[in-house]
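User: what does the whole thing look like in 3D?
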Amino acid sequence: MIYLDYSATTPVNNEVLEAYTKFNQDYFANPNSNHELGLLTKQKIEEATEDIKKVLGVDAFEVIYTSGATEANNLALKGYALSNDHLGKHIITTPYEHSSVTTCLNYLEKCGFEVDVLDIDKTGLIDLDELEELIREDTILVSIALINSELGIKQNLEKITTILKKYPHVRFHSDMTQAIGKQKVDLSKVDLITFSAHKFYGLKGIGVLLRRKNLSLTPVVHGGKSTSIFRGGTPPAPLINSLAVALKLAYNDFDNKLKHIQSLYDYLCNNLLPQIECANINYKFGIPQIVNVSFTKMGAGKLQKELSKKHILISTQTACSSDSSFSVTVKKITSSDTLAETSVRISLSHLTKKAELDELITAIKEILNENS
Amino acid sequence: MKIVKVTAMWCMSCLSMKKVWRKVFKEYTDLEIVDLDYDFNEEEVKQYNVGAILPELIIFKDGKEIKRIIGEKNKSELFAIMGELNEEN
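Assistant: Here's the predicted 3D structure for the full assembly of 461 residues, as structure tokens:
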């Protein structure tokens, strides 16, 4: 099998899995229990939390553990908006957010909040002048994902935070799910940061909301004692520990991993894809982990299915579409229905081998020939 | 006129359009708006043969379908469409 869908999820790192198994055996107690093993488990959670803060450079934040990025986005957006609606009910976002953000914002609209969606330019970046123009006295939150999952567009965090610094009544949430573990990011000027472990070779079922300590939230999940007053429930200590291990490993030897991915990206985009006449790379300014490409002679869904039969796994995207063969995101950036109907995402990892990309291109050529 | 508006909670284009709809539709006093959610009102949505792209607005006059507006439109585009429909009908 050739796996090229690393932006959807990643295979768990063996060290993470071993740490998780061992932790389950050694520290299985409820961290809320006041006996010896409970207290030891609690201490291990605290150590993992400190490790996470150290790796990400976020001393001024509380680490709130959730079931994943979707729940973290729910807590960041609904939690902040509902807790601060006395300050205003206006929120600003971008057209390139993950559906877990979109769904929360649609929900908040139904609750009486007003949401403005920013325009994007031809390079996929938000219009910074428009961002500043849209900020009002009742604007309480701006939510902008650092990296878009479909095209790999990376927004200019520094320019965004420079603008927002002028408006201290506006808080900034960034969905960093596609960024943490894949990019080095300065998180110091963001107020609410969300991500999940399974995007960087950790386990599924654990995510994080980093909350700047002076911000109030309304809990989304109410429950018993936890590591945070903002999220109830018994802390999943083994998962928390595994997230810290995965995060440390993700940033270990990071520059070399990124260099390898960049070389794969260059090889795919400059050497392999130009061999296929109907291939069109839909976005060329993004992170090297994501290649969004249209093969205009075949619908995205069909190509994905045919490649899957050959045990090569890539993805299609479905944002704002009930049909898996149409990408509204690609339509927005290319203005082409054909490119939107035929776009697929190939996502790369430091684990990807050059030979796997050769096999991918050979397979695509075969499929296109067989169906021409 | 009656407008059946099909949207989904996960649809960013639907979110983008809400402000435009508010601005445009408030200018028309005789509009009946029916909101359908693509997932939560699945059976009703099926009856309207909704396509691949959301949001989809299905416009009726005297019980007869006269127009479909699919995907994002800006305020001017939507005003122009509504103006044409009013003139024609």
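In plain terms: Chain A has two domains: 14-250, 253-370. Chain A touches chain B through 23 residues (CB under 8 Å).
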